[in-house]
Design goal:
- The complex is a heterodimer of chains A (389) and B (96).
- By secondary structure, chain A is an alpha/beta fold.
- Chain A folds into 3 domains: 175 residues, 3-Layer(bba) Sandwich (FAD/NAD(P)-binding domain), CATH 3.50.50.60; 100 residues, D-Amino Acid Oxidase, Chain A, domain 2 (2-Layer Sandwich); 50 residues, no CATH class.
- Chain A is built from 12 helices and 17 strands.
- In chain A, strands 3, 4, 5, 6, 11, 12, 13, 14 and 15 form a 9-stranded mixed beta sheet that branches.
- In chain A, α1 packs parallel to α3, α1 packs parallel to α8 and α10 runs antiparallel to α12.
- The radius of gyration of chain A is 22 Å and the shape is globular.
- The N and C termini of chain A lie far apart (49 Å).
- Chain B is of the alpha+beta class.
- Chain B has a domain of 61 residues: Alpha-Beta Plaits, CATH 3.30.70.20.
- Helix content of chain B is 27%, strand content 19%.
- Chain B is built from 4 helices and 6 strands, in the order αββααββαββ.
- In chain B, the strands form 3 sheets. In chain B, strands 1-6 form a two-stranded antiparallel ribbon. In chain B, strands 2-5 form a two-stranded antiparallel ribbon.
- Classes of the chains: A alpha/beta (389), B alpha+beta (96).
- At the A-B interface, β11, α6, α7 and β15 of A face α1, α3, α4 and β6 of B.
């Protein structure tokens, strides 16, 4: 049987970061990917923070789509909407997952890791990794298998997500030409734009619009329990969200439709490791519940798993990483905010405030006059401060 | 812009069909019971329209349309879906 120091299950952001870090330390590393090539089954918006990726990889030839010039935050009710435009203070990129994940895996390979594709890992027993093409041995086994963490669940490191802990994201990519995308969003050169839309209609959701080089990505994420309760088909939900923005992609052609689940539960409820088996990325539920950023925490946790000397030190290092801590701390706040009545409350609060301001009459603000608003604000504000601490 | 059918949207993906279904129903009777009690959440939540009832009341699984997101496995109240990954790199692949 082939023996490796480290066997990594999955060649996404967490897996490639783990393999890259371990290979750089001189370990003999095998990475096993179920898709025909890295990234081919990986779906997201997607945006990344350059400084996070740069903590692990040399980002000078990172294949980005556009550099984000503006982030538009849009609060939307059935009746109206309010927008805030933010200039990012650090470098944000939009990326295509296929190109980006390939680049990450190439980095791991260049550092000495071996990649095999088209292979599903079906089980782990002790230091044996069982695949559909045979077995390999790994002194250390890193499960970076994504949100559907079949192996981590089979080993009892974590349980299945519940519908109320899961967001389903569906997204479409509309393609055109580079010039046309630039024209519609008023962009120069490599500049890009990201729109993040918080809405309570028809159900509490976070929508997004990202610019790629020659395409526009439109997607929406909603909690699975709300989708079921309201009997909405996911693509119909996307169509409802898209409706007011159709002008943006008028004449463009649909290049791709896909979907992905986003875990809103995980470490520390899910065990990060046991014995010689480590879990990282989506498999450990490490997605920022507010921004849906899973790539950053995946790269950081993967790298930590790749370099950890013991289960104990891995666990400790996760708590010390800023990117991971943010995910853990955001969960209680987001859990509160995503309750239908709270999300509605805030979306209305923001839109009412801004529309009243625009009208020049803040005395119309009905929300600020209601009685129990203070308790709600204080509770959420303190949860929010805990996140930012 | 006219509304696109889900099947048209799925055409944008690359599929290589695994002859062996990676999704299976454990027990057809349970699907009937689930429809009556819960209204079949897998049918509602699946973003690829994989699940539907046939005229004779059997749950049909169009696994070859699956985008491998895992939602059905999470929403099934009876844990009645055997959910695996397609073998040997088969199944869905994105282009972007």
């Amino acid at each position: 049987m082939m023996k490796f120091d480290v066997v990594v299950v999955g060649a996404g952001p967490a897996g490639s970061a783990a393999a890259y870090t371990a290979a750089k330390k001189g370990y003999k590393v095998l990475m096993i990917e179920r898709a025909s090539e890295p990234g081919a089954k990986n779906v997201s918006g997607a945006k990344i923070r350059e400084s996070t990726i740069a903590k692990v990889f040399d980002t000078k030839d990172l294949p980005f789509e556009r550099i984000v010039k503006n982030v538009r935050l849009i609060f939307k009710t059935r009746e109206t909407e309010a927008q805030i435009t933010v200039k990012p203070t650090e470098k944000l990129y939009t990326i295509s997952r296929l190109k980006f994940d390939k680049w990450l895996a190439k980095n791991a390979e260049n550092a000495g890791a071996i990649l095999i594709t088209k292979t599903v890992v079906t089980g782990v027993k002790g230091n044996r990794v069982i695949t559909e093409r045979g077995e390999v041995e790994g002194d250390k086994i890193i499960l970076a298998e994504g949100a559907n963490a079949l192996i981590a669940m089979s080993l009892g490191l974590r349980r299945e997500l519940k519908p109320e802990e899961t967001v389903l994201g569906v997204r479409e990519i509309y393609s055109s030409t580079r010039d046309e995308v630039a024209k519609r969003f008023n962009l120069q050169g490599d500049e890009g734009e990201i729109w993040e839309v918080i809405t309570d209609h028809p159900i509490p959701s976070a929508g997004f619009i990202y610019t790629f080089k020659d395409a526009v990505v439109i997607g929406i994420g909603s909690r699975v329990d709300e989708i079921i309760k309201n009997k909405l088909r996911p693509w119909e939900l996307l169509d409802m969200f898209k409706e007011p923005y159709l002008e943006l992609v008028k004449g463009f052609s649909l290049r791709e439709y896909s979907a992905k689940i986003i875990p809103e539960q995980g470490f520390p409820k899910f065990k990060p490791c046991e014995g010689n088996v480590y879990v990282a990325g989506d498999a450990l539920g490490l997605v920022d519940p507010l921004t849906f950023d899973g790539i950053g925490p995946a790269v950081i946790s993967g790298s930590l798993a790749g370099s950890a000397e013991s289960c104990e030190s891995y666990s400790k290092s996760l708590y010390e990483a800023k990117e991971i801590l943010k995910v853990i701390r955001s969960r209680p706040l987001v859990h509160e905010l995503l309750k239908s009545e709270n999300l509605s409350f805030y979306v209305h609060l923001v839109t009412d405030f801004l529309t009243s301001w625009a009208k020049g009459d803040l005395s119309e603000l009905k929300y600020l006059k209601s009685k129990n608003i203070l308790g709600k604000l204080v509770k959420h504000l303190s949860l929010g401060l805990w996140v930012m601490q | 812009m006219r509304t696109m059918k889900i099947e048209e949207r799925l055409y944008t993906l690359r599929y290589k069909r695994d002859e062996k279904p990676h999704l299976e129903i454990k027990d057809q009777g349970t699907c009937k019971k689930c429809y009556e009690e819960y209204g079949s959440p897998c049918i509602t939540a699946c973003p690829a329209n994989v699940y539907s009832f046939s005229n004779d009341g059997r749950m049909i699984v169009a696994y070859e349309n699956c985008v491998e997101c895992g939602t059905c496995k999470i929403v099934c109240p009876y844990n009645n879906i055997i959910w695996r990954f397609p073998r040997y790199g088969l199944g869905m692949a994105i282009r972007y």
